[in-house]
Amino acid sequence: MTIKLLDPRVVSRIAAGEVVERPASVVKELVENSLDAGSSQISVETRGGGIGLIRVIDNGVGIPSGEVELAFSRYATSKISNLGDLESISSLGFRGEALPSIAAVAEVEMVTCAANDSAGNYLGLRDGVTVDRGSRGRSQGTTVTVRNLFRRVPARLKFLKSPATENSHIANVVSQYALAFPEIKFELFVDGRAGLRTPGSGQLIDAVAQVYGLEIARNMLEIGGGEWEGGAATSSLLVAGMIGSPAVSRSSRSYLSFFVNRRWISSRLLAWAVEEAYQGLLMRGKHPVAIINISLPPDEVDVNMHPAKTEVKFQNERAVFSAVQRAVRRTLIEQAPVPKIEEVAALYRAPSGPGQVLRTSPVGGDSPATPQTVSQTPMVSLPVLRILGQLLSSYIVAEGPDGLYLIDQHAAHERVLFEKIEGQRSRQKIEVQGLLEPVAFEISPEQEEVLKSNAEDLAEFGFSIEPFGDRTYLVRAVPALLYHKDWTGMVRELLGSISEGKRDWREEMAISMSCHSAVRAGQPLTDDEMRELVRQLEQATLPHTCPHGRPTMIRLNSAQLRKEFGRS
Ligand code: ADP
Ligand code: MG
Q: Disulfide engineering: 124 pairs with which of 51, 132, 134, 358, CB 3.0-4.6 Å?
């Protein structure tokens, strides 16, 4: 399509506004243009935090001779032409605002060559006005160079952060698009140093390895083996991408990436959907790694919401939410790996040769405790195990068809009880035990607020608690599981943790109940008790982690045994 000025009626309907907020916004707009131009290679260079220089080079379709200057007019675009097009946008850009907005606040040079042009064209602008033009040799594609950004807009300059911070925003933009377009070769050079280079292999895992490193890449699970359909609610909603196994959780949400028809967006709704799917698998305060691609017909999503185009509105928000949540949950259930004995052993072993790194963080910590030798062994469920004995009064030693298992009795029991409690609660059939005499207990004013606002839920879990005046409460019944346990301690702990505003408190409640009623480490178990616990674990939906996200077991298979003993 040729570049044309948009009709004023279309202009009045687009969410116009400032698109150039900081250097990273310039990079984002230029990279999006290169992507819309069908490039297979995009190279980004910046200097001085993007203020000195930003250069984006692509090998896309280029701009035909006669249209180069027009590209810098406000509302000139080749991507849409009428009101109807606004309803169904399939390109990343559509408002014809980026190039003129950038040119208005910087010195810009463009060299571009389209397929049918014999030579490339050159255009130089300063403060939005053309100062130079001519022809210049270039193979097909476009190079845009932006210098001295915001030099004449001191108010904007003042709000920028340090060059290092601006560089990290720029690197994030390039990284996100590298994840969204694994078939495209991306390069980033920051102040002359190579920052990122993706191979353009078309495999998401290769882009992940470059952006997040090998540790994370090794622990990624592919969503549903490819695609996940959204069901009847929307015509054709697909969820694809990769998610981190629970072993690579992070302490912030910045490792969650969402793309809608390959547009990078931010969405609290989708972040929530993903975190919901990890319920019971991550430790408190930890967040998953995920790269989620949602594809749906362009007319089912409105991208014309915000000038920076980072927010979208789904026609059927609920369908999208539940498709994402189910796709992630299903992937976790089907593929979350059992940590192997080597992983744990490696924590204590000295590095055995060059290139091998000693990891000291616990499993589930910020850096994953997964040495190079470990491959993922997806296991749908646990095989039938033969109990060999108990170790240190804390671990059950068992044999399975594929090797030796060491099971943490407390973590395993927590998992079993957690699923039991969740099951009983969803059927509203929590087993309750009445107390022979009501027990009075006193709580703080803060805890009282929490108790009042959650009284119904506490009742749902089997606690019968009534006010007795002066912040004293009478407990008449407790969940049967907790009858002989320290349930007052548990309730106090729970009221404290909810008042900190931690995540879903019902889940917190189920976790806390399972933790307080599970067998402890150091408690001797009879053969029958061990057999019963393992039998119940075999039937759990997610047998490999406790509800806090820690592993319930480690495994050593026969190949590993042979290796440890030096046999081939
Ligand atoms: P939009 O992307 O919304 O159309 P822009 O101001 O970013 O608006 O770009 C204006 C037009 O210039 C685009 O519609 C496109 O035709 C052309 N253009 C910009 N960058 C490139 C590029 N790298 N390769 C080819 N064409 C480009
Ligand atoms: Mg654009």
A: 132
